[in-house]
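hey so i finaly got around to running the thing on FkbM family methyltransferase from Marinicella sediminis. pasting the sequence first so u can double check i didnt mess up the copy paste, my clipboard has been acting weird all day
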Amino acid sequence: MPNNWLGKQLAQWLRKQVINGSELPLDLAIGEVRMRCHLTDNVSERGFVFMPWRWDAIERQVMTEALPAEGVFVDIGANVGIYSAQAITGLNRLGTVLAIEANPRLTNRLNFNLQATRDHRKEKPRIEVINTGISDVSGEFTLYLDDDNLGASSLLEKESGSSQIQVPCQPLLEVIDQQKLSRIDVIKCDIEGAEDRALIPFLMDAPHHLLPHCFIFENNQQLWEGELLEVLKQRSYLETHRTRMNFIYQLRQPIHFNAREKHVKRGVPVIS
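ok and heres what it spat out for the 3d tokens, dont ask me to read them lol
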């Protein structure tokens, strides 16, 4: 589909035909990403499958450029693994993907998609899928579910009609220590308004060698209680992109995206 208004309308029409006329789930290859797609209960999945040229396109391009072949990608709120699967396609056997998802209904899908993508690669990076939430303290928290859009589940209380479950949560730095990671290159965080709880303690306590080159996180400023953007600036991060849904902050040497040319200039930021 063309990347314009007409393409969006055609994609939405085709999406309706596929969902209504197919036996779900569908096993699909979208570029180098392999996924088993259920489509009816996940907005992100539908967006990526039917409009991959539109769904977080800038964010995914910046992630790809900021992630070296032996790099480490941490995906907080991994959903069904769209970002993590794309990260796998650029990593070699020394690379690592740490995919963290609190919703147990998504964990099996996430694991399947990452394994399916890796199985088609000559180079097979390390994959770790963790069914936990990320918050400022350890313990059990209520996860408020959205049955129509599983990716919208949140630790923040939703309207009274939503179902809920108890899930374990840990601080990000604790999880990283348990996984024995000695470096991180990119962190993506999309946890429906709890991004400040996950990232501020990490930014305040992480040693310099664990600071990633790049943060990609959902813009939920109206829900945050902490000053996440200010803490990022205090640790020498710069806002390099603000898209319709997300912020991108990078350390020192930003990757400049030329929206007109639809590509990212080569160059990975370096921490010395």
